[in-house]
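Pasting as-is:
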Amino acid sequence: MPSVSRASGVQLHLTALPDGRLGPSAHAFVDWLAEAGQTYWQILPLGPPDEHRSPYKAASAFAAWNGLLAVPDAPVEPSEVAAFRRQHAYWIEGWERHAGPGAVADQVRFDREWAALRDHAESRGVRLVGDVPIYVAPGGADHQTWPELFLDDGQAGAPPDALASDGQLWGNPLYDWPALQRRGYRWWTERLRRTFDLFDVTRIDHFRAFVAYWAVPSEAETAVDGRWRRGPGRAVFDAAARELGTLEVIAEDLGLITEPVTRLRRRLGFPGMLVTLFGFDPDDPDGPHRPENHTSDRWIYVSTHDTDTAAGWFADASGEQRAALDAALAAAGIEEEEPSWALIRLAFASPCPVAMLAAQDVLGLGSQARMNVPGTKGRSWRWKLEPGQLTAGHAQRLRAATQEARRLAG
């Protein structure tokens, strides 16, 4: 389990940096985090995004996107290509067949630039947090390279709920878990090996699917006709841990979470997730996100890439929600006029060991700065910082709030 000492961090994808890539602005953001007293920088998946810019339908579960390179034409020696092929023999040939000439050289460039960023982060006391999407893209490199690991009679999705009466139809191929089991879950072990080559900690998206996942017929136009199928449980993680050692994993356990999902997470020693914005639902008075119900085996997020910003949520909050927030702030002894900073300080006051906030919430930005609006196309994954938008003043304010909550790095 990631360290349980009190700490905090900021969520910001690389594409949301002023220049949208590795290099000087990424190193400068690490410096800003250090000045702000932060321990973690959480980043979205690094794979090549789909046509809608979503990193959650990346063309590879292993390869990084060359669009993130600061110097895309940097020289690469044949010896570097050969060394990369040896080190990443499991997946690189499949990616090269999918991506074409120059694909390996681009991965060499990425690893070179990433290593420089990670070294700089380590020197400033900042740990990097990654993100592993549960599924792969249909027709992507993984689907093409290992077709025997996927079913051909269904697609991934989510069941109908209060937010989506038809459910959610994701369209990703479903895993053939018995086929993966017969191969010792090697694909998942190698995927996590690559992840921990790049990150100190990683979030695993849609963790509940390891207990049960929603399978929808291939021809379905909505997710209504899906059904639950049993997942592999802890076997995937046990197989990976035998080769990789302790897995520094955060389990994304938001949404419809059953007791077996929580039991699996706790037995594995993975912290789950709570979201401050979910803590004031008048229809869920006993929910885990309510501040009085927080537990120390979860990380607390002010907002996430899928939610509204803190300021955007407050602008649309009902009178009941605002009253519940006021009561929680009073109970925590917090007096703060700016809604986003009130929510930040409330999250920081939580007993959860790690508190995470989005860069947009540091800036107090409204709904126009959302990273993702689920279920829409063309509106998401486009927000980015303006040059100089995060200032030394913001760092000082965040550092003071972090110190007040006894979460200061170092």
